[in-house]
Design goal:
This protein has four domains: 58 residues; 59 residues, Beta Barrel (OB fold (Dihydrolipoamide Acetyltransferase, E2P)); 136 residues, Helix Hairpins; 89 residues, Beta Barrel (Elongation Factor Tu (Ef-tu), domain 3), CATH 2.40.30.170. Helices cover 41% and strands 22% of the residues. It contains five helices and 14 strands. A hairpin with an 8-residue loop joins strand 11 and strand 12. By secondary structure, it is α+β, with helices and mostly antiparallel strands.
């Protein structure tokens, strides 16, 4: 018998043994899968004859899970500059609590102040010229209303600067809470008076028999418009708190140049009275989420610890995911529903932390 004939039987025998060995392994694997699946079904139905295994299936008491991020009650409010300029003063520090409208940062305002002073001087000169000439009696009510509105606007501007000064003095320790309260009350009165004077001006202007303004009155109105423009420019040198909250981030430094840009935040504020989780629920789980539902929140920053929460708000529409976005989106990607979860018990979670929500 040739060597080739001796090789063939041995080759066929080797293949047969390999086939039976793979078949045996497959049967064993199928049996293991069947037993494990049976154990899981018995565990769910509560059967008494459940087969005990080393890795029993964990009990799941939630209907949906979603990734999210911790944020303050008001969200992260990013405040930037309204015009190009140099930072002259930074009046707050990290963790300071600020009120709505409080001055946070002041830009260099020498030019703006000079423009406002020049405009006010010109307006006063034009008013003297107008009053020195005989005028149409039919416009007396309208002229008086215009003068009252202008005076109320100037009083409101001075009241804002007064409150700004008192708040800064209190923060530095040289002021008192009582003076701040008085300044705030005076500001409220000036706002109310300005509204009344504007209403009276609208009433006087609506009369059908009021003649058109003459040259001197037109010049005065133009000068007062310049005052309003200069005042608006000066106000843009002030970076104020749009909401009450805590200073969470403060990248601004005195002496830096800043410009209006959505990517350049000078101060980041947040209302830390309530800490929330913004979670993104897949659209297939939207029907399982209800306002008032209980939520368990877990974070890798606190392993083994759970935080209790309640669903406070559901977004009215689906949107693209922000927390779990990886690469460019495709038309087949799943949309998500933004869900707001209020966390109780003053948790130690910090804004910006990633966390997972498990809706029970």
């Amino acid at each position: 018998m040739s060597s080739e004939e001796n090789y063939r039987p041995r080759k066929r025998g080797f293949l047969a043994k390999t086939f039976f060995l793979l078949a045996a392994v497959g049967v064993g694997a199928f049996g293991a899968i069947a037993v494990t699946h049976s154990d899981f079904l018995d565990a769910k139905t509560g059967s008494d004859d459940t087969i005990k295994t080393e890795a029993s299936a964990p009990k799941i008491d939630w209907v949906a899970a979603a990734p999210g991020r911790i944020e303050p009650k008001s969200g992260l409010v990013r405040v930037g500059a309204q015009l190009l300029g140099r930072i002259a003063e930074v009046n707050v520090k990290l963790n300071d609590k600020v009120e709505e409208g409080e001055l946070l940062i002041r830009l260099d305002d020498d030019e703006a102040r000079a423009r406002l002073q020049a405009a006010e001087t010109e307006a006063a000169s034009r008013k003297r010229e107008r009053d020195a000439q005989p005028l149409d009696k039919a416009r007396d009510d309208l002229r008086t209303a215009e003068d009252n509105v202008f005076s109320a606007e100037r009083a409101l501007t001075n009241a804002r600067f007064g409150l700004e000064y008192e708040l800064q003095a209190e923060r530095q320790g040289s002021g008192t809470a009582a003076r701040v309260t008085d300044a705030r009350n005076y500001l409220a009165k000036t706002k109310s008076k300005l509204q009344k004077e504007r209403a009276a001006y609208a009433t006087a202007q609506s009369k059908a028999d009021v003649p058109a303004p003459n040259r001197l009155e037109s010049a005065l109105q133009a000068a007062r418009s310049d005052v309003a423009v200069a005042e608006a420019l000066l106000e843009k040198t002030r970076v104020r708190a749009p909401v009450a909250g805590t200073v969470l981030q403060l990248p601004a430094k005195a002496g830096e140049m800043v410009s209006p840009s959505p990517d350049q935040s000078l101060v980041v504020l947040g209302d830390m009275s309530v800490v929330r989780l913004k979670a993104e629920v897949d659209e297939i789980d939207v029907s399982k989420i209800k306002v008032g539902g209980k939520v368990t929140v877990k974070s890798n920053a606190y392993p083994g610890k759970e935080f209790n929460g309640t669903v406070a708000e559901l977004a009215p529409t689906l949107t693209s995911p922000q927390f779990s976005l990886r690469g460019a989106r495709r038309p087949t990607d799943v949309e998500v529903l933004e869900v707001t979860v209020d966390l109780g018990g003053n948790p130690s979670l910090l804004p910006g932390m990633r966390a997972d929500a498990f809706f029970r």
